[in-house]
């Protein structure tokens, strides 16, 4: 009877989480939305069309924002970071924060091949903001 781990890679020394393995084999994905001088209820976004036959799993998100003008720097920098299946119109994650925020997903939202994921950053402050956000995960 065989014991230990199967030797699929030659010198097998670790067992990886799916997201760690994706980084190792190059199926990791990261997307950035960026907007400068964005007004209330406008947004900066990035779209990604998942190739047919693939599935995108989103494992984390993060966003930050600051006042465009120095005189607004002491005000609240309220904003949201939202992940949508843009093809179906379904909201997957809607996260708010003051100055930024971030989440990791133990059970990652998924986007199937042929659909488009949209990640958008939405200022909710009463002044213009510079906003940045990233999402990441893996595609198999």
Write the layout of secondary structure elements.
Layout: H1 18-25, E1 28-38, E2 44-49, E3 55-67, E4 78-85, E5 90-98, E6 100-104, E7 110-112, E8 116-123, E9 129-139
Antiparallel strand pairs: 1-9, 2-8, 3-6, 3-7, 3-9, 4-5, 4-8
Key attributes of the depicted protein:
140 residues, mainly beta, 1 helix, 9 strands, 53% strand
Structure report:
By secondary structure, the protein is mainly beta. The protein has a single domain, classed as Jelly Rolls (Sandwich), CATH 2.60.120. It has one helix and nine strands. The model has no long low-confidence stretch (mean pLDDT 88).
3D shape: elongated
CATH topology: Jelly Rolls
- In N-to-C order, the SSE pattern is HEEEEEEEEE
Secondary structural class: mainly beta
Number of discrete helical segments: 1
Task: Kindly state the percentage of residues in helix.
Answer: under 10%
The radius of gyration computed from the alpha-carbon positions, rounded to a whole number of angstroms, is 19 Å
| DSSP strand tally | 9
State the end-to-end CA separation: 32 Å
Tell me, rounded to a whole number, the average pLDDT.
88
Unreliable stretches covering 5 or more consecutive residues:
none
In a nutshell, what does this entry contain?
The chain has 140 residues and is mainly beta.
């Amino acid at each position: 009877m065989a014991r230990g781990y199967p030797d699929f890679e030659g010198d097998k020394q670790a067992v990886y989480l799916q997201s760690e393995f994706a980084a190792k084999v190059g199926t990791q994905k990261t997307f950035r939305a960026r907007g400068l001088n964005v007004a209330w209820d406008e947004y900066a976004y990035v779209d990604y069309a998942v190739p047919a036959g693939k599935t995108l799993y989103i494992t984390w998100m993060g966003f930050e924002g600051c006042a465009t003008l120095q005189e607004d720097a002491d005000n609240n920098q309220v904003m949201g970071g939202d992940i949508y299946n843009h093809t179906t119109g379904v909201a997957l994650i809607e996260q708010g924060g003051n100055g930024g925020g971030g989440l990791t997903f133990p059970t990652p939202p998924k986007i199937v091949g042929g659909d488009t994921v949209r990640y958008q950053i939405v200022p909710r402050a009463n002044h213009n903001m510079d906003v940045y956000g990233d999402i990441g995960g893996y595609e198999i």
